[in-house]
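Render this sequence as a predicted structure.
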Amino acid sequence: MASTTSGDVLPTGGRIFTSIPDVFFLPEFVFGGLVWILVASTLVQPDNPLGWVMFVSVFCFVLTTLWFFIFLCGANQSSVWPSLDVGFHFVAVVFYLSASVDLAYVTILKATILAVSPTADNLKYYRLDIAAVVMSYVATLLYFLHAIFSAIRWQRS
């Protein structure tokens, strides 16, 4: 039976590198950063869906960085933090899933453009978009796993 008097609700310091779900922070940085870099290095056409993808990747990257440092410094010991952890990662999953679908749709559109005018630039942008779609779905999966394991941890606390 877990002790309810323990003030150590969430891991702090170096323990975040060994605890599930916090071990997902670093892969979320890597894959979220790759989505950001890959989309930014392509021709951002059409603006609207790819602008959303850029917003989501930058937003989640910045907030995950902030979240990581809050956990690392130990400022997460209030009883509200487990529910905030679940809420943030659930929102990140919804955002990344919508951005991944938008990015996949734009990539399919670029495939039709590539079929009509197969230039070297179009092929390069298409390949970068394919890589961004894969990284975006991997980031979505990582945030989903983090949200599920955070919810399990929240239920135990």
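Summary. The chain has one domain: 24-156. The first helix runs from residue 25 to 40.
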